[in-house]
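User: I want to check something. If I give you two sequences, will you return the structure for each one separately, not as a complex?

Assistant: Yes, each is folded on its own. Here is the first sequence with its structure:
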Amino acid sequence: MPDEPRPAAHFVHGPGVLVPDGVCRILEHDAGLSEFRSRVRGRRPQLDAVLDAIHTAAIRHRRISDLGNQPLPTSEVAAQSGVTTEQAAQALNVSTRRVTQLISANELSADYRDGRWVVDTNSLTALIEKRTP
């Protein structure tokens, strides 16, 4: 059963609006926001920054949802399950060996369970955001 839609007021925070990653992806892909961003680039610095933020969120959602055609879990309970090193490698566009190196260097949080690494989804999301231009 799909989640009930939240009321518009849920997304309004002070003078701004919080836009979920999945909505950013729809705006980028289906509503042509990428083309709009290119057309208006340089007119207003604040507009450039907001459109870049939407673009970054859309990229993050695409990379994460490509792990299994679903966004990674965001609740604390779901996030505890994590993802495999193979899924993390795919999301980061690196090898599984590189993921293990990132874990060893404490750049990526993971737990060793049942003979394999389980990468923390929050840590993975943070690293993707850090690496996304």
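And separately, the second sequence with its own structure:
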Amino acid sequence: MELTSEQRNILDGGQGAELADCMKTLVRMGEAFGAPRLVPIKSAHLTGSFKITSFKGYYELLQRIVDAGLKVSVPTTLNPHPGYEYAPQNRLLFRGQKKHESLLETLGVTPNYSCVCYEYHNKPDFGDILAWAESSAVIYANSVIGARTNRHALFADICQAILGLTPEFGYLLDENRRGRVRVKLDVENMDAPALGFLLGRKCMDRTPLIDHYPFDVAELKNMGGAMAASGGVTMFHVLGLTPEAPDEETVLGGKEAEESITITQRDLDELRADHGVQKSTAMVAIGCPQMTLKEVTEVAGYFVGKRVKKKTMLHAMPAALREFEKTDLFDEVLKSGAEIYEHCPLSGLSLRIGIGQQRVLTPSGKLHYYLEGTEYGDLNDVLQVCGVVD
């Protein structure tokens, strides 16, 4: 890689051993992916927000960096809380969580605690170069905003946040942002998270170009989150909707797509568990990625004057929840018997006792893929099962 004189000085230890190790990490990563140089970033987003007792190395390295007095050099946000206070077993696994969060905040990280970082605290513009490490945030930034980031790994994200640099490869380059799989839709009743789940499995790490459909922002968020979970998709295009998809020729770069697939209504419906299985679940979890204020407000409307029939959990980003708590709808949700949290539902529910008997129904394609013991239903299915719609 071609380094500037300042970058070379850092690599050679001229500004301390810890900063040199950060630079070595980026140089080795860049060399592995054939990056010619390092480029400045506008912001970073970190994935390592959990203090898991069985992990050691990451936390030791983080402590070294903090002890050396290093700070992030660009605006940097952080993934959600792990649900430390949700259950006794969570407090056991995540003991040390408060110290871990203190270290990250000492590093200069913004304590937003949300995978939906782009809603409030970390709002990039079209074309901005980023170093983000959360799959649903990465795919949203690339696809919906038109910013540019690869899907980075634990600790490499911190190194980039400290140095304010990232290796130039992958989705930072025009040629890697083109559509590779042409996706046609034969759908009457859209279910965006289910579509994302299916496309992740079918496209794997290839960028899909989807027929025009008037998805709203929440649908794009939840579809992308599912796509990035069930596959390794880092970017998608929707014809005439997302910023880099004005027409098919532009997205495909004047070439033919590698593959063309059609998603039908039957495909979407087959992902949903049958009604009997849905009703047999022990609990309902909504909000993965975490809900925005608009989403939680819309969902909350269904709970007014109702009483839930089974354990029902809503998960919202902390900043949105603070605003929502000031509304009358917040009290109505609590009166219904539903619960509202700001932690990550995946980590919060991963340690539930008796997973086989404590199955979870969710309208989240992302949570359905990651969390053991889930059944999928669209939002209407889920609201019916928890008893707030007929």
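Because they were folded independently, the notes below concern the second chain alone. The chain has a mean pLDDT of 95. The longest strand covers residues 283-291.
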